Structures are given as C-alpha cells and as structure tokens.
Amino acid sequence: MKTAFLFPGQGAQFVGMGRDIAERFDAAKEIFDKAGDVAGFDITKVCFERLDTTTMSQPAIFTVSAAILEVLRTESAAEGLKADVTAGLSLGEYTALYAAGAISFEDGLRLVIKRGEAMQAAADAGDGGMVAIIGLNEAKTRALCEEASEGELLTGVNFNCPGQVAVSGSKAACERAEKLAEKYGAIKAIRLEVAGAFHTDMMKPAAEALAKTLAETRIAEPAEPKIIRNIDAQYYTNAESIRDGLSRQLTSPIFWQRCMERLLAEGLERFYEIGPGRVLTALMRRISRKTKVINLGNAQAIKELLNS
User: Fold this and answer.
1) 170 is catalytic
2) Is 90 a known active-site residue?
3) For residue range 207-223, what is the model confidence (pLDDT) as tens digits?
4) Edge-to-edge strands of the sheet including 2-7?
5) Element (H, E) at 6
6) Statement: residue 51 has pLDDT above 70
7) What proportions of the chain, in percent to the nearest 5, are helix, strand and coil?
8) For residue 294, how many other CB atoms are within 10 A of its CB?
C-alpha cells in the first residue's frame, strides 16, 4: 500500500500545540530543545504561549511537525511506517523536504526562520491581505478577481480543495472581493488573519531574500521518498529545482488540490497528516470523500497508532 506523509502549513498553529507530545515522548522533546539551540530563542515557549506573528508561527509549525516525525522514526512500534511520497502545504513543503532527507533539520529550520522574517518584512512594506472565497471554482474566482481588482493586484493563490480558494492582493481589492463574492455565487467570503498578500508579486522582496539563503544551503538530490511541489504538482527532480520551487512558492499560487489528485491517481492509498491541527485532513475530505487521512496531531493519536 503506497503511503504519503502530509505536513500542514501556516494557519494550522494554535497556542499549546506540541506540549502533550513533548511531555509524552523524549524524542519529541529533544527536537524542541534542538530547535531552540538553532533558532536562538525558546521555540517551546513560542508554541506553548504565543504565536502572534509570521516570524514566530512558521518555525513553530515546522518544529512541531518535525517532533512528531521524530517520534515515528524512533518508536519501534512505528518501524514499518515509511512514506513513498511527502507533501506539505506551502510552509509544510519544508517539512516534506526534511522528511525526505533533502535538507537537514537544522537547515530546514534556518530556512523557515528566514522565510518568515522575509515574508513579514515584505508584508510590512506593503498593504496587502487575503480572503477565502467559499463555493466558487477557479474560473469564477478569476472572474471575481478581474472585477474586484480595478487595476490593483488581486489573484487566486490557494487552490486547496473544491469550492475553497483564497485570493490575495491589495487590501482595497480584497475588500471589494468580499463585497462582490455573493454576486458570483460564493457561499461566503472570509477575511484571513494574515500579515500580507502572500503568494503574489508583493512577496518578491521576500522571494529574493530567501533565494540568497537557499543558494548557500546544502540540499541533497531528491530520491526516495518522492517530494511533490505546490506550485505545479510536479515532483522535485534535483537540488536546483528545490531551490527554484521554494523561492517561486512565495510569489506563486499553491495548488494543493492538484497535488492530492495526482497522488490519488497514482495509487496512493494511505495518508498521514503529521503536524498540528486537522487542516489537511479536512481538505482531503473535500477532495476525495472515500480517502481517509490518519491525523497525528497530538500524543493520544500517536499512542493509538503505536498500539494498533
């Protein structure tokens, strides 16, 4: 049975995430401790007490996901659990690369910290936002963006599952999209609590800053498991494609639905969501109702898996 490990991105975080896992599993606690040494600040405290900025939430999510992965790698009861493919939603792609051995934990965390800082800086320099549009397909979302933009930046950027698209752009254009969404048949439009217009040209300064760090980072040639990338639902083929994909990801749409549909078409049957929350589990329910995702977001779920 082919298996995929899925890793969540920004938006999955919640205060207190990972606490029960660190308390229950020594291997997880060691990852938290190592993360603090690499980051130069107490990531455990960030996860358990505050997650108020992009710069804090991104390394925190990466660390929690890596801690759960470490438990699966070190517990004898999970010895046979291996991935054929890894995938991560936006930020989660870094954990997918770490899980596949393309980057080390230390380098992955440094990249994620740089990514969060660069995105926050680009957001602070601009005036952007994002809106979730519920109930529209890609074509109607494009039409909505065209009318609402009025010459300003507005585009679909997160194609996560049927009927759920996030649009990103200037704040004024986002406000117009909220008001016009019902006209195009949307069930509702929800303003997202994000720092800026992620996955658009407003993030070009962040992409350029991240590209410099990526150029200096050791990245192994991808082998097994395979890693599917967000920007086009293709597999990474070499280290340079990884550098290109991660930098382009900041200014390009995320096609999570296409990624999952490709995996399903290729015969992937067993899916594990490794990280905080249940975002990817919920998205898969909309993509394929008959496909079950085993969620490993807390100590109880991990214990149930190990005892099964």
Assistant:
1) no
2) yes
3) 999 999 999 999 999 98
4) 226-227, 85-88, 2-7, 268-274, 293-296
5) strand 2-7
6) no
7) 50, 15, 30
8) 17
Query: Which residue among the candidates 170, 199, 247, 252 is catalytic per the annotation?
Result: 199
Per the listing, tokens 């050791």 go with 218
Full-model pTM: 0.94
> What's the confidence (pLDDT) of residue 204?
97
Cα–Cα distance, 235 to 245 (Å, whole number): 10
Furthest C-alpha separation in the chain: 58
Integer Cα distance of 144 and 231 in angstroms: 22
Distance CA 7, CA 98 (A): 11
Question: From residue 82, how far is each of 40, 69, 73, 99, 110 by CA, in Å?
Answer: 32, 11, 9, 10, 26
Q: Which of 90, 168, 170, 252 is catalytic?
A: 90
Tell me the C-alpha distance between 124 and 92, whole Å. 23
Residues 6+ apart with CB under 8 A from 52: none
| Spatial distance between the Cα atoms of 59 and 65, rounded to a whole number of angstroms | 10
